[in-house]
Specification:
By secondary structure, the chain is of the alpha+beta class. The protein is built from 5 helices and 8 strands; from the N terminus they run αβββαβαββαββα. α1 packs antiparallel against α4. The longest helix is centred in the C-terminal third of the chain and has 40 residues, at 128-167.
Length: 196
């Protein structure tokens, strides 16, 4: 399970670095939504030390840029962050100089999985092409989150099934498509006398 999370985080780091490079942005970050706690967690970023934010839980409120993006249910582009007092929590959590920003939802409005944001230290007018590019990157991250979730579910289901089979009092044999026995449980050993 840990490898799936590490693979996703490694990819997310690489993607945020690529997005920042293509858009010539100073910072790029991805936060993932935790629906159970109604908070977000920084998964990856480019342009800052990741350790600074490793354990940061970010509330989904209008006082954070990512939270505001989720609440608005649309991309948010701000040309001058200094004119806007909406994001006081964001500025406190992210103490780097930011002038312009763009953030988009990864996932759908009904089922948001995270927010991908791009930030610059100089004033920047982001184009529709910039927005489309960042949204495409966010869509990739959303697809990977869904895949990770499905893989985790399948692994947990497989472990539960193995536990049920192994602890069953009934003899159970698993056959491949050619009818060859590929596994059996302890009860089958007891009943047939055959060892694994």
């Amino acid at each position: 399970i840990q490898n799936i999370d590490q693979d996703f985080e490694t990819f997310a780091f690489e993607l945020t670095a690529r997005v920042a490079s293509v858009l010539d942005a100073d910072y790029c970050g991805f936060v993932e939504v935790d629906a159970e706690t109604n908070q977000m967690r920084i998964i990856a970023g480019h342009g800052w030390e990741q350790e600074e934010f490793a354990e940061s839980a970010i509330p989904i409120t209008e006082s954070t840029l990512a939270g505001y993006t989720l609440i608005q249910q649309r991309p948010v582009i701000i040309e001058n962050m200094n004119e806007d007092n909406l994001f006081d929590d964001f500025k406190r959590l992210f103490p780097y100089p930011i002038f312009s920003s763009m953030s988009v939802i990864a996932g759908t409005n009904d089922a948001p999985l995270g927010v991908l944001g791009v930030y610059t230290r100089q004033m920047r007018q982001f184009s529709q092409d910039d927005l489309n590019f960042v949204q495409a990157a966010a869509n990739i991250l959303a697809t990977l989150i869904r895949r990770r979730t499905n893989e985790l579910f399948l692994r947990e289901s497989e472990q539960k099934t193995r536990g049920v089979v192994e602890h069953s009092y009934d003899g159970i044999r698993l056959l491949d498509e050619n009818g060859v026995v590929i596994a059996w449980n302890a009860a089958n050993e007891r009943i047939t006398g055959l060892k694994r």
